[in-house]
């Protein structure tokens, strides 16, 4: 089923998804066919349809998530090898710890590394305490959103960082895994979130050093 043929879509959503499918088809021309792109866009839409707070943004979320998953699949299948290390941060709700870690990785690594994140039980929105604590460091994470992880995203990673997701975290042989034991920001006041934030930054900087990525922004 093409994404814009989904039975529960409004006219505006159909148009937005059709436009998204066209953009993705152009972006991944020669890499993936229309059927693969439509399948990923439809399944990405379904991931958010039952819990998105603002339905108007569903096509945009679906397009962004589908694009990430297609980039991951391209790496897994050897169709995209640019030499940059890929790090995936996994926690439970993808609303606090993993989002702060992703923010620091993108801030310090820039274009020298690729960062993704996901949760075993994605929340509805990024935690306000995490947003505020990161804003104090000049890093805006409000453009991100809680999302699940998928097999292709984890398989594409060079390093998988887990944060409290336990047995729910996916395990693929041969991957480099690290468990970061960190308090959940959702259970802390802003002072406590700052402590977790600073710990995460130190860990991200050590990780980048281990990957041979020179950290900027320090």
Automatic annotation (TrEMBL):
<dbReference type="Pfam" id="PF21234">
    <property type="entry name" value="Phosphatase-like_N"/>
</dbReference>
<dbReference type="InterPro" id="IPR048716">
    <property type="entry name" value="Phosphatase-like_N"/>
</dbReference>
<dbReference type="Pfam" id="PF01451">
    <property type="entry name" value="LMWPc"/>
</dbReference>
<protein>
    <submittedName>
        <fullName>Protein-tyrosine-phosphatase</fullName>
    </submittedName>
</protein>
<keyword id="KW-0059">Arsenical resistance</keyword>
<dbReference type="InterPro" id="IPR023485">
    <property type="entry name" value="Ptyr_pPase"/>
</dbReference>
<dbReference type="InterPro" id="IPR036196">
    <property type="entry name" value="Ptyr_pPase_sf"/>
</dbReference>
<feature type="domain" description="Phosphotyrosine protein phosphatase I">
    <location>
        <begin position="85"/>
        <end position="210"/>
    </location>
</feature>
